[in-house]
Amino acid sequence: MNGPEIQISFAPALALFVAAPRRAGRTAAVTDGVSTLGHVVESLGVPLTEAGELLVDGRPVPTSHVPAAGEQVHVTGVPRPQHVPGAPLRFLLDVHLGTLARRLRLLGVDAAYQSEDIGDPALAAQSARERRVMLSRDRGLLRRRELWAGAYVYSDRPDDQVRDVLERFAPPLAPWTRCTACNGELAEADKDAVRGRLEQGTERTYDVFAQCSACGRVYWRGAHHSRLEAIVDEALREFGGAAA
Ligand SMILES: [Zn+2]
């Protein structure tokens, strides 16, 4: 490229996306004079889902801004918590985030996920159709224009991933209200109605039952839930919950 030269800097939160020499502060970037600032930022490695404001000489500009020579550009990180306007907060997770999907469901957060890989175009279309925030560690997927909204998942450890999503979006928590297998909503079920689906030991020992309104799976409170209860307790302690 051989066009206008700008000076650009990135918030520390964005350091992992940009090449090492750009992490410390302001550096020069040569643009082509027609590409938008959004495109320039993406081409330097930062998904626009992760950019908060684009500031030119201290003033916010839209991603469609075409940079001119000598402009000083600063890219901020997204505010936390981040407000996603226009729809109830719900998520769509890519094929690599199954554990995160189940944990979000456990906390009552609407988290669509399929264990087979339907491909980036289909995921992006689903995000747009169902107005779901796409969660992924794949920057290519997060660049797709069709997305309703998207967010990069910063860690590959499920414990940290849950904290990242709860801290970033502050979704209302309602533990034990959603099917961890299919994301359907749970309804209370009495023992007689679900008797045929229970194993004998379960039937004798446990009394609190819920059933998924979508797939029919039966849930009960039992000792084997202690690990899940620990996950729920920790999330509620850190992030609260309206229905807790
Ligand atoms: Zn279900």
From TrEMBL:
Coiled coil region boundaries: none
Mut7-C RNAse domain mapped to chain residues: 90-231
Protein species of origin: Streptomyces solincola
InterPro entries given in the database record: Mut7-C_RNAse_dom, Ub_Mut7C
The protein's name: Mut7-C ubiquitin/RNAse domain-containing protein
Pfam families in the record: Mut7-C, Ub-Mut7C
Residue ranges constituting the Ubiquitin Mut7-C domain according to the UniProt record: 4-77
Superkingdom to which the source organism belongs: Bacteria
